[in-house]
Design a protein that fits this description.
The chain is of the alpha+beta class. The protein folds into 2 domains: about 70 residues, no CATH class; about 220 residues, Deoxyribonuclease I, Chain A. Helices cover about 35% and strands about 25% of the residues. The protein contains 9 helices and 11 strands. Strands 1, 2, 3, 4, 5, 6, 7, 8, 9, 10 and 11 form an 11-stranded mixed sheet that branches. β10 and β11 form a beta hairpin. α1 packs antiparallel against α3, α1 packs parallel to α4 and α3 packs antiparallel against α4. It is elongated. The chain starts with a helix and ends with a strand.
Length: about 325
Amino acid sequence: MVAGSFVLHFVTIILYLRVPDRFTAFTVFPIWVWCGIGLLLSGSAFLFFRFRLSLLLSAIWTITFFLMADEARSLGRLGKPLPYVGHPENSLRVITFNCHSSRDLITSLRPYNPDIVFLQEITSHSRVKKLAQALFADEADFRHYPRKSCAVIVRGKISHYLRIHGTRCQMVTARLLRGPEVQLMNVHLTPAETNLRLWRRDCWQAHFHSRLRRRAELAVQLAILRQKTPANQLPTIIAGDFNAPPQDATHRLLERHYVNTFSHVGTGWGNSFPSSFPIVRIDHIYASPDLIPERCAAISIPNSDHRMIVADFFAR
């Protein structure tokens, strides 16, 4: 048991630090899953056989969880303020929400009084228009991409709009009423592979190709964003359903130039899917360095399979 736990720890550390594509089926799980299995092995070795070395290994697994688990870092910030109902003073509020199964968007979104809303899996144009009017009245502007079921709503005026055909991605330039002119990119990447039969070779291949597709999509979208918006020209927010947890290598395309808001200031349990028992954080808000994140949280919404991500920024 101790030997198995030790080998699992060695493999886990290597794979989560390097995140190789061929082992996506392993790293798609939150690291606390493997920490739990390792602790079960080492703890059983002590409980049944009083093998003292297992106590040291259990301590190592515990330290690994607190140092490497995404959830541990955000739970450690529980004392910090959450995004509260109503609009914060001198802040820019952004919401991203995969609203496929949500029944009443107005009731869910309006109490938080956002400036920018990113929506995924919303097919009805009339529903987007009604929501925009309910949120911002005559100050609203929006763009809906019905074929790909995504929308961006702002309190302000949209000046440029681009749809990337073949992907579920929108790019918008908007002048906000309570903030600067910003560049916005609404992202909904290829759905993640759900095959968890790790004893089968086809499972590992499916996860491998799934990650490659998502990374290729995001690489194309970021290349177009850089082409349309030269570096440092406008504050930029990239948000949506990435279908990839924060440890996924797909996010490394963004980490050099953008900040993952929840990873930086998020409070509480940030996992967003499935809403009833969220075990993975696949909904993200990234921002360029000229937007300073202040607060971020995942908010549970009734009758929804995703949690809503709310973030507040201070614009320099």
